[in-house]
Design brief:
globular, five-stranded mixed beta sheet, alpha/beta, PROXY
């Protein structure tokens, strides 16, 4: 989607139009999940970590925005298998910039690019009433009602998070 709005402005506009319950938190730049959770005053697991991945399905490259709890690791092989691919990998920072207009760590759990398929692990929404995420830059976060996120973003559900908690 071509727009003059920043990613942050697109997220806020989308949430406002959808009458979502959310708040914006400004904080020092931070890309590490545990540290940004402390700055937000949320639990690490509330973080909606958004990973930009790729897989090949029937010989064609597909891009995926995979959302999971920030205290979990992604099982990229399981993600690929659920999508019909053989393996998946994270994309380069240049591809992240092209597909999201963000730097790694600042990607919100919304796809604004037509080639970026949005999938989410449902465990995040089973664990928390509110989710939190960096909203297009490392200095602004949004804390959002999880049900409003699901209603507005309408992600495809795929179980791909490893169940063990990450140690940072």
């Amino acid at each position: 989607m071509v727009t003059d709005k920043t990613v942050f402005e697109q997220v806020v506009a989308l949430l406002s139009a959808g009458e979502a319950a959310f708040r914006v938190i400004e904080h020092p730049a931070e890309g590490r999940c545990e540290a940004v959770a402390a700055l937000r005053g949320t639990e690490q697991g509330q973080g909606a970590k958004a990973l930009v991945c790729q897989t090949r399905i029937d010989g064609a490259k597909h891009y995926i925005l995979a959302v999971l709890a920030a205290d979990r690791q992604a099982d990229l092989q399981r993600l690929a298998a659920e999508l019909g691919g053989k393996k998946a990998s994270l994309v380069s920072p240049a591809e992240i910039a092209t597909l999201t207009a963000c730097v790694p760590g600042a990607i919100p759990p919304f796809s604004f690019h037509p080639q970026l398929r949005l999938v989410a692990d449902p465990e995040l929404f089973e664990r928390y009433d509110d989710i939190a995420f960096n909203a297009g830059d490392l200095q602004r976060s949004v804390v959002l009602n999880a049900q409003d996120y699901l209603r507005i973003a309408a992600p495809e559900f795929i179980h791909f998070a490893r169940t063990e908690t990450m140690a940072e």
